[in-house]
Amino acid sequence: MAYWLMKSEPTKYSWDDLVRDGSTEWDGVRNNAARLHLRAMKPGDEAFFYHSMADKAIVGIMRIVGPQMPDGEDGSWVKLPVEPVNALGRPVTLAEIRGDPRLAKMELLRQSRLSVAPVRDDEWRRVLELAGNRPPNLNLI
């Protein structure tokens, strides 16, 4: 399973909208790098839901639940079905992410305008720690 971060403006489509709807098709991505990431996603992968613009925070976790489909007339863009997994214990803000040395290489910071980006395993676990969620497969001794 791979991990991702997917951005949405909460005034257009928010975490609460996804929870209310139960699922949605993640569409409308029109950036070549983000399109490559969408094409790399597989059913079962999980993604942080990031509120961009006003909130600038990771607020939830969603799962890719089906294969990619064409998005648009020419078939060069793709969309994916997603569903909510759970909200974070608390939002993890962009300021917190920027201030955490363990997240310094996160694609969210390196390519801040990208709407879909990969998240490394250690980054995933760290964000969950910051949010107060127990990361899966975390070895606690």
UniProtKB/TrEMBL annotation:
<dbReference type="InterPro" id="IPR047197">
    <property type="entry name" value="THYN1-like_EVE"/>
</dbReference>
<dbReference type="Pfam" id="PF01878">
    <property type="entry name" value="EVE"/>
</dbReference>
<dbReference type="InterPro" id="IPR002740">
    <property type="entry name" value="EVE_domain"/>
</dbReference>
<protein>
    <submittedName>
        <fullName>EVE domain-containing protein</fullName>
    </submittedName>
</protein>
<dbReference type="InterPro" id="IPR015947">
    <property type="entry name" value="PUA-like_sf"/>
</dbReference>
<dbReference type="InterPro" id="IPR052181">
    <property type="entry name" value="5hmC_binding"/>
</dbReference>
<feature type="domain" description="EVE">
    <location>
        <begin position="2"/>
        <end position="130"/>
    </location>
</feature>
